[in-house]
Write a structure and sequence with these properties.
The complex is a heterodimer of chains A (231) and B (125).
Chain A lengths: L1 H21 L12 H13 L4 H9 L1 H22 L17 H23 L8 H18 L7 H25 L22 H24 L4
Helix pairs in contact in A: 2-3, 3-4, 4-8, 5-6, 5-8, 6-8, 7-8
Chain B lengths: L2 H26 L3 H27 L5 H30 L16 H15 L1
Helix pairs in contact in B: 1-2, 2-3
The chains are: A mainly alpha (231), B mainly alpha (125).
Chain lengths: 231, 125
């Protein structure tokens, strides 16, 4: 009985998946007017950004991104405050078994490559898929690898919070500079350069680099707090 | 069809079939170590071959694609075996031992070392 229901549900799912992908109708709404045409035109002509998603996320709806960064900061500080009760255990690792030499040698080999990939992803956020959030998360996974393979690998919490706060403050400062120069918050005020160049898109790469630093330090701090919590 | 597309397509088909076999192995095998073995061996070669195939197909546009593909292949060649080693080691230290039906003691030679280590730990306590 249960298996029959599962098979029927899977068949229905497969059917709808198939009709979606066999007849996508991507061209249907192309000519209708709407906000998406404004986005698509302005991204190329005014902002000179190759990645439309980045232009929407950072420029047209940059205020939303500031909100997202704030939500992440709030989540990190909430977790820190919950784990703060057990803070007197900090210094002891909750993992008792040390990593084998294969893992630690491999981690030493892979760590620079992972950091480089993360930096590449957030620096090229306006040209290729990806951006600050993704790049920052990749960097945090690199630090996670180092933390689980070396027992005495430690990061200063103060440096992390200084970098994080600086990145957040600079994001708001850039927004306010747009307010002063252009009239609205996070308005583009820098030269946009040529399409598909690294130095293009006005303030988008700068904001994404700041977001990358902020997300990387925030998530690294989170991982560090969780790993050193003994409970 | 150009030569690049034919060679790349063949490599991709080899990779895809190895990935399929890896998935089948994870589904069919009885315990963690067998599954890890099936998963890691098949997916390492499968992913390598698939990515190399994509690199060869795209090499028609620009030569840099094959270099990028080789960089990803090197990354997989390092990271995939290490991660599966860490997983199997963690499982062994949780005392989930492999299923062995043969009476040959050499089938699981690490067991003796592990038990000796455990006894030493107990004595320290």
């Amino acid at each position: 009985m249960k298996k029959t229901i599962v098979i029927l549900l899977l068949a229905a799912f497969g059917y709808f998946l198939a009709i979606t992908f066999l007849d996508p109708d991507f061209e249907k709404d192309r000519n209708r007017n709407g906000v998406k045409n404004v986005y698509l035109e302005k991204t190329v002509s005014e902002l000179k950004t190759a990645n439309t998603v980045t232009a929407i996320v950072v420029n047209f709806r940059g205020f939303d991104t500031l909100g997202e960064v704030t939500v992440l900061f709030l989540a990190a500080s909430a977790l820190g405050s919950i784990l703060f009760k057990k803070r007197h255990h900090v210094g002891e690792r909750s993992i008792t078994l040390p990593a084998s030499s294969i893992v630690s040698t491999g981690a030493k080999l892979l760590f620079p490559a992972i950091i480089l990939l993360g930096v590449y992803v957030f620096v090229h956020g306006h040209l290729t898929p990806g951006g600050g959030f993704q790049g920052g998360t990749i960097i945090a996974t690199g630090f996670l690898l180092m933390l689980i393979s070396y027992r005495n690998f430690s990061i200063s919490h103060n440096i992390l919070s200084v970098i994080e706060s600086l990145a957040g403050i600079l994001f708001v400062v850039i927004g306010l500079m747009g307010f002063i120069n252009g009239g609205t918050f996070l308005q583009n005020f820098m030269p946009t350069g040529t399409l598909n160049n690294l130095f293009s898109g006005g303030i988008i790469p700068i904001i994404y680099i700041l977001v990358g630093f902020k997300v990387a330090t925030e998530l690294t701090g989170l991982i560090y707090t969780i790993l050193h919590e003994k409970g | 069809m150009s030569l690049y597309e034919i060679i790349g397509g063949l490599l991709s088909i080899i990779g895809a079939s190895f990935l399929f076999l890896g998935g089948l192995g994870i589904y069919r095998m009885p315990d963690v170590y067998n599954r890890l073995q099936a998963g890691t061996k098949a997916t390492t070669l499968g992913a390598m071959s698939l990515i190399l195939g994509v690199g060869v197909v795209k090499m028609e546009d620009h030569w840099s694609w094959i270099v990028k593909a080789i960089i990803i292949i090197v990354f997989i060649a390092i990271s995939n075996p290490i991660s599966s080693h860490a997983l199997s080691r963690a499982m062994y230290h949780r005392k989930k031992f492999p299923i062995i039906k043969s009476s040959d003691k050499n089938m699981d030679a690490y067991r003796e070392v592990f038990e000796k280590q455990e006894r030493e730990k107990e004595e320290k306590k």
